[in-house]
Design a protein that fits this description.
By secondary structure, the chain is α/β, with parallel strands linked by helices. It has ten helices and ten strands. The protein has a domain of about 160 residues: 3-Layer(aba) Sandwich (Rossmann fold). Involved in beta-(1-->2)glucan export. Transmembrane domains (TMD) form a pore in the inner membrane and the ATP-binding domain (NBD) is responsible for energy generation.
Length: about 250
């Protein structure tokens, strides 16, 4: 049996009496692909904020493997192996695609020093590998600012992959994408299965159906249901609270 990569135990946060996340408990196994579903305001992004350290919890605990990372500083959680991609991509637009990935591969977080030193061959090979994974080999010399929306999203995903986090948190990775870009994003994320533990917040049901191994549905800050795609679409509570009578389509 695989180890639990992420254990969320009774987690909650109270914003002046409003419980955005309320007693959430989830266990995500190593190498698992978990999708978080729920209507706007269900608490999905806030849960990601709590895991990554952007928001401090008021109760409960978070374990990364056997380490209690509850309310650690955001940078410390990142260095311990949790990488997060936000809805709005953040890349160095004035630098090339390849240079973005090279900077991400440096052990030192000091960007200015990174620009003036060389990259070891092993890291160069890793950059080449990531360029292939995200499908931007032919665009390696292009300025990041000239990429399409979908390509920019893939580059930011590549920045995370280059750092080789144990857990990847992806917040709506297909937001604003065309149908073909969404399909390509699903292919990229599926290629990472088993290499990373991945938690995805997503509204595109076609994408969820394509990538999800297990789904957690949130409602009003709590876990409403968990299961595979078939179990979730046949769950009456989920249909009433989120999916509607037509289910997942």
């Amino acid at each position: 049996m695989s180890a639990a990569a992420l254990t969320i135990d009774g987690l909650g946060v109270d914003f002046s009496g409003f419980k955005a996340v309320d007693g959430v408990s989830i266990v995500i196994e190593e190498g698992e692909m978990r999708c978080l579903l729920g209507a706007n305001g269900a608490g999905k992004t806030t849960l990601m904020d709590l895991i990554s350290g952007k928001t401090q919890s008021t109760n409960g605990r978070i374990f990364l493997y056997d380490t209690n990372i509850t309310n650690w500083p955001e940078y410390q959680i990142a260095r311990h192996g949790v990488g997060r991609k936000f809805q709005i991509p953040s890349v160095f637009k004035e630098l090339s695609v390849r240079r973005n990935l090279e900077i991400a591969s440096f052990p030192s977080p000091k960007v200015l020093s990174n620009l003036t030193i060389g990259l070891a061959k092993k890291s160069q090979y890793r950059v080449d590998e990531v360029l292939e994974i995200i499908g931007l080999e032919r665009d390696a010399r292009r300025l990041a600012g000239s990429l399409s929306h979908g390509q920019t999203q893939w580059l930011e995903l590549g920045l995370l992959i280059t750092q080789n986090p144990r857990v990847l948190l992806l917040d709506e990775p297909t937001a604003g994408m065309t149908e073909s870009e969404t399909f390509r994003t699903a292919e990229i994320i599926k290629s990472l299965k088993g290499q990373h533990t991945i938690v995805v917040v997503e509204h595109d049901m076609g994408f969820v159906r394509e990538v999800a191994e297990r789904i957690t549905v949130m409602h009003l800050g709590q876990v409403l249901a968990e299961g595979n795609i078939r179990e979730i679409e046949n769950n009456e509570k989920v249909r009433q609270a989120y999916l509607g009578s037509k289910g997942i389509s």
